[in-house]
Write a structure and sequence with these properties.
By secondary structure, the chain is an alpha+beta fold. The chain is built from three helices and eight strands. The chain has a five-stranded antiparallel beta sheet with strand order 2-1-6-7-8, covered by helices on one side. A hairpin with a 4-residue loop joins strand 6 and strand 7. The radius of gyration is 17 Å and the shape is globular.
């Protein structure tokens, strides 16, 4: 019998499912329009498969860009594999969804960040504002600056929808 609803875990699963669905669509139809992704992942995750020279160069985390050139995108229930070009050296990577730390599509100002608190087994995800375009910054004086995350565990996050409005 459960003692409560684990909203953090449910949100975590839903956000990973969103990434999987987006990548499945890209696998099937390619990247539409100006869409592109910055995907940061934990290179030390036990199921990540990258070349030794990449794991040596990026021992903690690595950000890859899926934009102009990527090949053989394969999406599974647990992760995705893709061939990317690193200085004219194509490399195959396998990234489990559990290893993804951030997923950002700056073309539409969308971003997800997965955070973990040391000493806890479960990760919690949160919505994060994606980088704004230069035109959007002109009215930034009217908006309050986002607060920096505080250390320690929070019970809940309240996100103002005004943060995401243009």
């Amino acid at each position: 019998m459960t003692t409560g609803i684990n909203y953090g875990s449910l949100m975590h699963q839903a956000m990973r499912g969103l990434i999987r669905t987006v990548l499945e669509d890209v696998q099937k139809d390619g990247l539409p329009g100006e869409h592109h992704f910055f995907i940061t992942f934990d290179t030390g995750h036990p199921d990540v498969e990258i070349a030794d020279w990449l794991s040596d160069r990026y021992p903690g985390e690595m950000t890859v860009v899926m934009q102009h050139w990527f090949d053989k995108l394969e999406v599974t229930e647990d992760g995705f594999a893709v061939t990317l070009n690193f200085g004219d050296a194509p490399e195959r990577l396998y990234i489990p969804f559990d290893a993804v730390l951030t997923f950002v599509d700056p073309s539409v100002e969308f971003g997800l960040r997965f955070e973990s608190t040391d000493g806890e087994d479960e990760e919690e995800g949160s919505l994060v504002p994606a980088p704004r375009s230069v035109d959007d910054k002109k009215d930034s004086a009217e908006r309050p600056a986002p607060e920096a995350p505080k250390s320690g565990r929070k019970d809940a996050d309240v996100v103002s929808l005004d943060t995401f409005r243009k």
